[in-house]
Amino acid sequence: MQRKTTMLRFHQLLKTSPPCESQAHALSSPIPCHRKASMWVPVKHKSSGGRRPKRKVYHRVHELDKVMDFQKKPALILQLKSIIQSQKHQSLLLRDLEKEVGFVQKWNFMAAIEKYPSIFYVGGGNRTPPFVTLAEKAKKVAREEAEAKDLMEPILVKNLRKLLMLSVDCRVPLENIEFIESELGLPNDFKKSLLPKYPEIFSVKEVNGKLYLHLENWDSSIAVTAREEQLGGEGISAPSGLGNKVRISKDGNFLGPHAFRMSFPAGFRPNTSYLEQLERWQKMDFPSPYLNARRFDIADPKARKRVVAVLHELLSLTMQKRMTSSQLDAFHSEYFLPSKLLLCLIKHPGIFYITNKGARSTVFLKEAYDGLNLINKCPLLLFNDKFVALSGRREMNSCNAMHSP
Asked: Which residues form a coiled coil (predicted)?
């Protein structure tokens, strides 16, 4: 039902977004577009001789669609591992599997148990009820998870801190953090196992009957975006290429301190006018996402570009550089996100990609992926990959599925 609602909103936005009817109108927009929904683009700009213009085409990124398909089996394996490890004796009676995952999902897990004997061992029989536990080799690999979680802790503390620093009041409803805990890599008991360790940084307070996670200590040294860190690594720290003779490349990328990395969908053929608008937008400076949003007028083109930077940074804080559209929308108030968030995302096909594969609409940060593969993986994802590789599947973006529905 949620997916249908998202798709309906998606098509409504495309229908209600007026095209840029003139070059003057297009240049007044701070975000480059031919239509307000820039993922729908003409193949070429030619005179139609009074005929109706060609219909826009939705450009899919098939590799990112496949990421959602390929994560299903790894997610199942990791979720079953987590369930088994949560049991008192590290084994689960097969008759109790339905209590853990429900009647429908039970059969998917039973199929996984049968298909991957290198991971799951089934014992029992005669007078002993059948049970499932981890195979010996899987147990050996599973012991490495503790080390991966230790390596994750400073990363989680830093990212959680930055998440609060992005908000206008340096606080976020605790339920919102719980909503994205698996995307951040937080343990499901982080309120008891992680937050009490850092009272100088985090506190939980009630505001108007609602629990919020508050930031107690601001750290300017980490108020740097992932985009800025990447540019710093490439040696880009000062404005460059601002002369009139320097033109943007056909792939939309521009070498400058205010530019975003672009990756257009296959088949996307921007014309000269589009690239000129994009060049101006890429060169435009904008306030840091870590400055309070209340200081800026949303009508200011620089403030609208800043919103793109906020979404970019929010996705960068997740393990797999992706979130569902409903998870992003949950931070609408705390980050002063636009009311038409979906439209803001589809305006930037070079930066974000929205797929409706899987149970929910998911937003990807495109630059984080090389085809099917996530480029940089945190210790927990590296562990997940190693564990899932016991099934014979390698080089995949396995997810932390402990909290998957």
From this structure: none
Which residues are registered as beta bridge partners of 213? Answer: 172, 204
Lowest mean pLDDT among 5-19, 116-130, 189-203, 387-401: 5-19
pTM: 0.80
**Residue 157: which region, alpha, beta or left (left: phi > 0; alpha: psi -120 to 50)?**
alpha
Show the domains of the chain with their CATH numbers. 67-134 (1.10.10), 144-220 (1.10.10), 223-236+248-373 (no CATH)
Task: Pick the closest to residue 323 from 399, 227, 222 (CA basis).
Answer: 399
- Between 128 and 139, the higher pLDDT residue: 139
Determine contact, residues 29/277, Cβ cutoff 8 Å. Answer: yes
Burial classification of residue 41, based on how many CB atoms lie within 10 Å of its CB (0-12 exposed, 13-18 middle, 19 or more buried)? buried
Helical residues (DSSP H) of 168-324, grouped into ranges: 174-179, 181-184, 190-193, 226-233, 272-283, 301-316
